[in-house]
Specification:
Blueprint: H1 10-16, H2 44-51, H3 66-78, E1 83-87, H4 90-101, E2 107-111, H5 116-127, E3 131-135, H6 140-146, E4 151-157, H7 169-178, E5 183-186, H8 191-194, E6 204-208, E7 222-226, H9 250-262, H10 269-279, H11 282-303, E8 307-310, H12 320-326, E9 334-338, H13 342-351, E10 356-357, E11 367-369, H14 381-386, E12 393-397, H15 403-414
Parallel strand pairs: 2-3, 2-4, 4-5, 5-6, 10-11
Antiparallel strand pairs: 1-7, 6-7, 8-9, 9-12, 11-12
Helix pairs in contact: 3-10, 4-5, 4-9, 13-15
The structure holds pyridoxal-5'-phosphate.
């Protein structure tokens, strides 16, 4: 990854961009945890000033907290955005971003293959009167076919989980901008290490920072990062109208002063601290995880022990060339394979010694999962197969263990 918005290279920005150390007394090498609900002020006038946004400062942790603000600044810096909003979870970030833009009667267009929680959220959005169109492929032609004068945004994942679909972000962003629509991208699986959608033309990034950003699997959180470039037409986006005076901060201000604040979607200060520490090692973790994932995928592919290894780094993989171009020669830490039968898949999951049987991703420890019986258990067979999940599919979130141990472990578990 080349240079960041603040002139630092990515690996340096992880440690020093949006650095909070200088702002607190005494200065500290990590961000202090402000474990407090409220911030008493010296006068009624000061408190009034903060409430009216006339003065900087904090009043109540649901609305703002210095530890959380430090995490937000770092997320904005490492995603190459203008400003960020930390949320209680990735799902809270997705809900706030989508409902912050669309209202009853509006429509959104989403890619076919999406995280299961997002698919379930769409059912509630439809109940709220927000129409959802899905497209099998993220192409201009497919979007054109379902777009209407009520379309308000396009939503997709940089790399879908677990099918590992990718899409051409600059091409789709320019289609969106011709139509005056924002492109909202879930960057969870790629992480800003592999891809910064905002630098490729996307307008808003949403992310489960519970995964690669935190890195240690020790807390749930999410973030919304805004490029600040999208111009919110007041007629099309009436909820944004009164926030337009904030210019590039309009969308985050609309959430911070409205929906996000009033749905209580705030992040706990301790989690912000854990994420600030965790994201410092994002680059070194991801380098190792991507190397391990490629080696494991190549080994699985040549082993004769499994079918259909899914990994973007394998030359025959759908999306390989686009991924190579868009992600600078790295392919992420998620892979899938088919064990041959559900029984063999369960046997494998039960037999691994190092990998944990767990439903999250993005931990430094390798995690294995049988998606059909877990995260896709509620999804109908047809939709499940469209998402690349068969009865014998295994998903692996590759960690930073010694690759020789991982391969030996997978070999004994598949034997
Ligand atoms: C995990 C995940 C989410 C949801 O994030 P939570 O932090 O669990 O709420 C959303 N999108 C993707 C792609 C994910 O992997």
């Amino acid at each position: 990854m080349s240079s960041s918005a603040q002139g630092m290279r990515f690996g340096t920005a992880l440690l020093h961009a949006g650095c909070p150390g200088g702002r607190t007394t005494p200065a500290s090498t990590t961000v202090p945890i402000y474990q407090t609900s409220a911030f008493p002020q010296e006068s009624a006038a000061k408190l009034a000033g903060i409430f009216e946004n006339r003065q900087p400062g904090f009043c109540y942790t649901r609305v703002g907290n210095p530890t959380v603000a430090a995490f937000e600044e770092r997320m904005a810096a490492i995603e190459g955005g203008r400003c960020a909003l930390a949320c209680a979870s990735g799902m809270a970030a997705i809900f706030n971003a989508l409902v912050g833009i669309c209202e009853a009667g509006d429509e959104l267009i989403a890619s076919g293959c999406l995280y299961g929680g997002t698919l379930e959220l769409f059912e509630d959005l439809e109940r709220m009167g927000i129409g959802v169109h899905r497209v099998d492929e993220m192409t201009a032609e497919a979007l054109e076919a379902v777009a209407t004068d009520r379309t308000r945004l396009v939503f997709a994942e940089t790399i879908s989980n677990p099918k590992l679909d990718v899409f051409d972000i600059p091409a789709i962003a320019s289609w969106c901008h011709e139509k005056g629509l924002p492109l909202v991208v879930d960057n969870t699986v790629a992480s800003p290490y592999l891809c910064r959608p905002l630098e490729l033309g996307a307008d808003i990034v949403v992310e489960s920072t519970s995964k690669y950003i935190n890195g240690g699997g020790n807390a749930i959180s999410g973030a919304i990062v805004d490029s600040g470039h999208f111009s919110w037409d007041s007629e099309r986006y009436p909820a944004l109208a009164k926030w337009r005076r904030f210019g590039p901060f309009a969308f985050i201000a609309r959430l911070r002063g409205g929906l996000w604040r009033d749905t209580g979607a705030c992040l706990a200060p301790v989690t912000a601290f854990l994420n600030c520490v965790g994201l410092e090692t994002l680059e070194v973790r991801m380098e190792r995880e991507c190397d391990n994932a490629l080696a494991l995928a190549e080994w699985l592919d040549g082993s004769g022990l499994v079918d259909e290894v899914g990994y973007l780094g394998l030359p025959g993989a759908p999306g390989h060339e686009l991924a190579e171009r868009q992600f600078g020669g790295r392919f992420g830490a998620l892979l899938t394979f088919r064990a041959g039968s559900k029984e063999r898949a369960f046997h494998f999951v039960d037999s691994v010694r190092y990998a944990l049987r767990a439903s999250n991703i993005g931990d430094v420890k390798t995690l294995v999962l049988h998606p059909a019986s877990t995260i896709f258990a509620e999804v109908g067979a047809e939709e499940r197969e469209l998402a690349g999940v068969f009865d014998d599919t295994i998903r692996v979130s590759v960690g930073i263990e010694d690759i020789r141990d991982l391969i030996e472990d997978f070999q004994q578990a598949l034997a």
